[in-house]
Amino acid sequence: MLRRLAPGPILAALIASRPYIPNMRRILSTVTRRGPGRGVGDGSVPIRASISDQNGVHPLLVLATPLGNPEDISLRARRALSEADVIYCEDTRVSQGLMQAVYQSDNDRPSAKLRSLHSHNEGHRIEEVLEAVKSGQRVALISDAGTPGISDPGARVVEAAHQWGLKVSPIPGPSAVSTLLSVSGMPSKHIFLGFLPRGRGQRVARLKQGLRPGYTLVVFSPMRDVIELLEDLRDIAPTALVTLGRELTKKYEEVKRLPVIALIDSLNNRPEEEKRGEASLCVCLPGATGKDGDSEETAQSNSLDLEAMERIAKAAQKMLLSGMSRRDTTEVLSGLDLGSKRELMKIVLEASEALTDEATGDGANRRDKQRRKRKEGKR
Q1: What gap in Å lies between CA 318 and CA 351, rounded to an integer?
Q2: Cα separations in angstroms, 348 against 46, 307, 371
Q3: pLDDT tens digit string along 236-272?
Q4: Segment 121-126 mean pLDDT
Q5: For residue 115, which of 3, 157, 251, 317 sits 20 to 30 Å off, Cα-Cα?
Q6: What are the distances in angstroms from CA 159 to CA 95, 163, 165, 254?
Q7: How far is CA 72 from CA 69, 151, 292, 329, in A?
């Protein structure tokens, strides 16, 4: 018996010398036993996805599921679903489809009961979920796709579990945030805002809040609203660079990286069937992004070099041409932390004068003078 439970004399001696420790044999057997589907490599991986405490209470498992391709599910997630007594999911129909795709036969498929837990009933489900955990059941929390609690239901349940003193354990896996960020070629330092408000005023305010030099802004949006969001972004930061991810990991996956104005033109020419579903977007400010590892102060101190000033001036001109006043243009640029307000006011004033001179034919001479002044100021 001891040979089956323990690979060497040390564990055998431990069992013999500590017979009073509750569940010692069972705990050690889960750590060392081998067999198909019961461990990996040298047998050091536990048989079960989670181990209960001395009172027989298992942790609440927060389990990530594939974004679209069922082959992205991890071995541990697959095992945890098989062992679960109850699975709380965003939509039972979607989760049932996932089980059918992941498990090839009915014998392998989880026997756990599927219970809905979505944004409309999460508050009412909290006590039910936590009582199930306290009673010793193995409880898994999943969403339709990705990681629960990240722009998906689940955060309120997890918060309550911590307040009840229950253990919460993550079973990591796919997340649309890291998935798109990995193929964006943008700074890994990021600000995640999830789904933005539907109202334009609130949406614009959140975009201004999230855009920072040296950081990538990550947001989610229904495809039907993407163009409106991008138009707001264009008004705030006309030179912004955007990576759009649609149908990530699915058959018709699409990743596009374009300047915001070019991306709007591209999406406007699409057929309606390609404007369904949800999209993930990464946004950064070219010329003022900095490199990963730079402090925010370093990125800001470098943001107003000569090249950056030229870009800010072009952005200011576009805003002025759209009908914005010099004051509003300065306020927008100040909200992006591109430099001191005094410097930005000067750039906006010069941009306004350049537009006036272009109308009178004196634009080229004034631009040359402005460039010379900027060079002299940097010496």
Answers
A1: 9
A2: 63, 15, 14
A3: 999 899 999 999 999 989 999 999 999 999 999 888 8
A4: 95
A5: 251
A6: 23, 6, 10, 35
A7: 6, 20, 28, 46
Cα(115)–Cα(182) distance, rounded to whole angstroms? 33
The amino acid at 127: E
pTM for the model: 0.64
Among candidate residues 208, 228, 225, the one with its CA nearest the CA of residue 217? 208
pLDDT tens-digit series, residues 103-116:
988 778 889 999 99
For residue 303, which of 208, 191, 211 has the smallest C-alpha distance? 211
Please choose, from the candidates 218, 200, 227, 236, the residue with its C-alpha nearest in 3D space to the C-alpha of residue 280. 218
Query: Could you give the strand order of the β-sheet that contains 254-259, starting from the edge strand earlier in sequence?
Result: 190-195, 216-222, 278-284, 241-246, 254-259
Both tokens of 170, joined, read 């993550």
Alpha carbons 200 and 208: distance in angstroms, whole number? 12
Q: How far apart are CA 214 and CA 288, in angstroms?
A: 6
Picking from 375, 373, 352, 348, the residue whose alpha carbon sits closest to that of residue 363 is: 352
